[in-house]
Amino acid sequence: MHTDAAPHRPSPSLATWLIACLSLLGAFALSGCDKPTRDVYQPVADSAEISAWFYHLVLAVDAVILAIVVTILVVAIVRFRKKPGDEELPPQSFGNMKMEVAWTVIPTLIVIGITVPTLGGIFELARKPDLNQKIIEVEVTGKQWWWEFDYAKEKLNTANELHVEVGTQVILNMTSADVIHSWWVPRIGGKRDANPGRRYPFYFRPYQVGTFDGQCAELCGASHALMGTRVIVHPKTGADSYEAWVAREQQQAQKPATPQQEAGQKVFMTKGCVACHTIRGVSELAVGARSRTSGPNLTHVGGRTSIAARTLPMTAQNIAKWVKNPQAVKQGALMTNLGLSDEEAAAVGAYLASLK
Amino acid sequence: MSVHAEAIEEGHGTGSLGVPNLKLAMWAFLGSECMFFGSLIGTYFFYHDHSLAGPLPKDVFSIGITSISTFLLLMSSLTMALGVDAMRRGKALRSRNFVWGTALLGLTFVGFQVFEFHHFVTEKGLTLATSLFGSSFYVMTGFHGAHVTVGVIWLSIVGWMIHKGHFGQEKAINVEVSGLYWHFVDIVWIVIFTFVYLLEFAK
Amino acid sequence: MASIADFARAPAPTYHMARPPKTGLMDWLTTVDHKKIGILYGLSGLFYLLVGGLEALLFRIQLAVPDNDFLTGEQFNGLVTMHATTMVFLAVMPIIAAISNYFIPLMIGARDVAFPRMNAFSFWTFLFGSLLLNSSFLFGGAPNAGWFGYAPLTGSQYSGSGIDFWWTGLAMLAISSMVAGVNFIVTILNMRAPGMTLMRMPVLVWMILVIQFLLAFSFPPITVGLILLGFDRTFGTVFYQVSMGGDPQLWQHLFWLFGHPEVYVLILPSMGIVSEILPVFTRRPLFGHHAVIFSGVAIGFMGFGVWGHHMFTVGMGPIADAAFASTTAIVGIPTGVKIFNWLGTLWGGKITFPTAMLFAVSFIPMFTIGGLSGVMHSSPPIDLQQHNSYFVVAHFHYVLVGGALQGLFAGVYFYLPKITGKLLSEKLGKVHFWVFLAGMNLTFFPQHFLGNHGMPRRIYTYPADAGWNTDNMLGTIGVILMATATLVMVYNILTSWKKGKPAGNDPWDASTLEWMTTSPPPVHNFDFTPVVLSERPLWDHKRTPGFEIPVPETSESIHMPSNSWRPMLISVCILLIMVGLLTHLWPLCIVAALGIVAGVYLWVTEPA
Ligand code: HEA
Ligand code: HEA
Ligand code: CUA
Ligand SMILES: [Cu+2]
């Protein structure tokens, strides 16, 4: 028989396989090293829990399928390797109808097995909370690059850090003032897009007290990476309760207590900050209906744990740094650099940080 | 010349399916065009009644005038069919006349559209930027108009080639294919006219 | 017994051409030969693979450590957008186009594609579109709204001129793809050698036929989307203007109505290549040949009904979510049929492992991993967490890199000897394979964890305390491995082209028509038109008495199309229209449009 075939080289040696497998295994072992703080599969709210449940279901199914495929593959490779010198042709089989049917029908059943509960999960996640019980309803507006939280019933407006109560249902009504953003706090639950011109709800009920981080999950411009958010789940009672937080937030802003803070307030009032920021009881020039202020409400900014959408921790120095040059902290930040002096910045930092 | 050598003479072979390449290509292209106009018309309906500012369709459409231009376009399909038929039977001059006639009718249709657009912009204050209606209406009908214009140019060239004796009966496929295109453009207009213009007044 | 040496007996064909052929550079610029166009596509695709990889390398350096400032957010977004756009439209699709161009006519026993000049037009339009797109780096910055460019971020209020390059460039690529789609549909359906029924067509040809339909029918929606975007940015229409009532979701529907079929455009040819390679190196026919074909067709069809699975977080409502979830999960079934038939092919074969086979075999588990994570995404309760996280990045790189790209690498090692006439070095090939496989898994497997640990995609920086440091560092190490491996491949191609071992007509003892002619094939492909009697014509010729491909006694007379400037001329005019739109130079647009009319007239009147 004449063939023009080039000589086939010997197949990779066992050593090559081993080294490759071992180094990969080593790498994967490493990949579990860090301690994640935003693990999707350590849920603290019902929404994330439903997701986690489905994840584990499909993960198990997938693992079995992958194991079957890889097993067959490995066995075939090992068993049916051509022996040197063996030039005979293997049996020429063109297929097998029974097997075709089997591997069409079985996956179909698996798909049905996954899809039917999934449909349940979709409607479960979309189910409206019981309106007869206590509900915290928040209007969430994504803006380049921060989050506005408006508690209409409680008549308070805050930014970036969402406060809720353990065991109480929450409705977030998502929208956006500019481009599309997506609100995602992994341990609370799956993300929801904040679409301009639309208002779409996301429901969850947290069951663990604590602070949980997340961030915007839809590309929204230069500082999309710095559009963090944080959920603070308060206990039902005690000094740190949700009700106590609401009561604090509803108060007017604190009066300056030191000369520096006094100076800071003056800077705030005179340097143009009021065009974009509200401090209730001090300046409400920018206040209006939801979404009309172009900067976050600063009435209780000192009570937040971070500034500029979790870009910097909350300290007077950091506020000063931010105010002096917002774009240096956050590229493209939509807050004007008003050219404050170091002194003015420090004063305004001290003042704002005192607004607990 | 073998079947294959012949087949690669662009489009003039009859190929494995028994359909000339050129015709098959035109059908595939028109399938693609269906998705194109489907998306444009879909966009129009996606935004139907979403405009925040007037004028609205009812304020600007004048069914009478558009009916005339629609009628002309419909007639052009007839003349096109006659032109194709004439060419199939080898009557080149007759075919040329019908093809040019079709182009002329198409040109009139485009003229009507230019007039309509002009009227909408100047008299009714509807521009591309006025509202979603303005945007989606002009872009949809504009792209249709552009297709008609392409068709007019194409048919003029086809007519010219017949006139010059380049397209005889053996190349009837060239006329036929331009006819396919022309009928398609016509059908798209029927859809637009029915669903965009007429339905507006059906409610 | 018969052998392929028989074909040398055929008498040399006689030629005629309308004009004398051109030579040298002029020949390449005006060529209408599907093989030369294939090579042009291939070289451009390979070049852009390096560019797209370099972009990935750059942003992976940025992501190697937390709080890095190697790149700014804008630069990072630009690199990510261009990485994806380059890889999808300028690397993988052109390499697919290269293989389709070079091999479809050979595999179906034809002399060329149905419309050789249109083919050249597709290539030049692609090339100019790609240059236009990349020229944005020089003028005012790369597009940076992500590869799916969601409105309204692409609107003129929110982004700069990069987006103008993006929509005009993509529009040119769309034109190129739609034209190519029509051309290949006709070629495959209509130009098969006598006896080559549809069911005797090689699986690769089938898969490419399916993707041509996908191209022809899925590019129009995105073209419309881009036109609306272009009109918004250029002429002040309000399609995506929220303040005027516009709804950005329109873009999402138009994009994904294209985008999902597009991912199958990227994978099906690789599945075809795998289906061609496995039988050759197991020495058996493809198990369930028809099932593999039908499942490919089914995947193509279903691909049009699942686009909403990219939009589960948008708020389409539970009914729509449920519908898209179901249709999406179903796509796994025909895909599984393919996987199991490949396993069936391996089972009981006599397997050898040249590099092409290594890539083809590793396609199976790598693609399966990606496909199975796709099945996770198809369930909205899961996807709400995974959407726009690194889990999705892991999913699509397993299918795109582990699947599409590895399949194409397999194709390079398998088919390149036909093009160059030289074998690639197996030693370097194996280095390429193992290093690439390791790098790929090192980069993309940990990304599953990153996604599960809450890392969103497209973030240019991340804090040190989120627990993402190791996995990101692994990802950067992995891309260095992949880059090294890719450079090894490039070196291998270049050196073997010059001084590789001669391949001979049929280096792999294969079974399809392309191996029947010389390597490289003559301009006219085959000295005579082969008559096809089975789905393995060459195999049966060599081994099955009674199935020999008849070699004619008389010579054929062949008409070959001559070189032409017309295709490039029209492409240039389209480019000028786009440039006019970009720069608001309307007279340029009008002149170029007239140029197209003139070009078309010259085209139709040019003697073939
Ligand atoms: C080559 C490209 C390719 C391919 C083939 C696929 C294949 C699939 N993809 Fe993927 N996908 C992408 C490329 C691709 N995808 C890209 C680029 C994106 C992101 C775009 C972006 O956002 O930028 C994406 C995103 C994406 C999403 C959106 C995620 C999100 O953004 O939230 C979803 C959701 O359903 C999805 C699902 C699927 C499914 C179900 C398949 C199926 O076709 C897979 C089928 C295969 C198998 C299932 C494995 C083999 C089968 C068996 C062994 C049989 C047994 C199996 C079962 C019974 C289940 N993909
Ligand atoms: C077919 C498509 C394809 C391919 C092949 C790849 C290949 C790779 N991709 Fe890509 N990727 C996408 C399609 C693809 N990607 C898409 C669609 C997105 C989404 C974008 C978006 O969000 O909008 C994405 C996004 C994406 C991200 C997420 C970015 C983010 O969200 O922030 C990452 C991160 O690691 C990544 C990494 C890689 C790597 C390491 C490779 C590697 O495989 C690359 C390997 C390297 C090479 C092949 C070239 C090496 C050669 C050199 C470096 C030498 C250069 C020398 C000269 C030029 C002389 N890709
Ligand atoms: Cu807001 Cu990303
Ligand atoms: Cu998809």
Explain how this protein is built.
The complex is a heterotrimer of chains A (356), B (203) and C (608). By secondary structure, chain A is an alpha+beta fold. Among the domains of chain A are: 135-250, Cupredoxins -  blue copper proteins (Immunoglobulin-like), CATH 2.60.40.420; 259-353, Sandwich (Immunoglobulin-like), CATH 2.60.40.420. Chain A contains eight helices and twelve strands. In chain A, the strands form four sheets. Chain A has a five-stranded mixed sheet with strand order 3-2-1-5-8. Chain A has a three-stranded mixed sheet with strand order 4-10-9. In chain A, strands 6-7 form a two-stranded antiparallel ribbon. Chain A starts with 13 loop residues before the first helix and ends with a helix. Chain B has helices at 3-7, 21-46, 57-60, 63-88, 92-122, 132-163, 172-202. Chain B has one domain (3-202): Four Helix Bundle (Hemerythrin (Met), subunit A) (Up-down Bundle). Chain B is mainly α. Chain B has seven helices and no strands. Chain C is an all-alpha fold and 608 residues long. Chain C folds into two domains: 34-552, Cytochrome C Oxidase, Chain A; 568-608, no CATH class. Chain C contains 17 helices and two strands. Chain C has a two-stranded parallel sheet with strand order 1-2. In chain C, helix 2 runs antiparallel to helix 14 and helix 13 packs antiparallel against helix 14 (469-499). The two termini of chain C are 42 Å apart. Chains in contact: A-C, B-C. At the A-C interface, helix 1, helix 2, helix 3, strand 7 and strand 9 of A face helix 3, helix 8, helix 9, helix 10 and helix 11 of C. Bound molecules: heme-A (HEA) (2 copies), dinuclear copper ion and copper (II) ion. One heme-A (HEA) sits between chains C (148, 263, 266-267, 309-310, 328, 331-332, 335-336, 339, 368, 371-372, 374-375, 377-378, 383, 386-387, 392, 395-396, 399-400, 403-404) and A (65, 69, 107, 110-111).
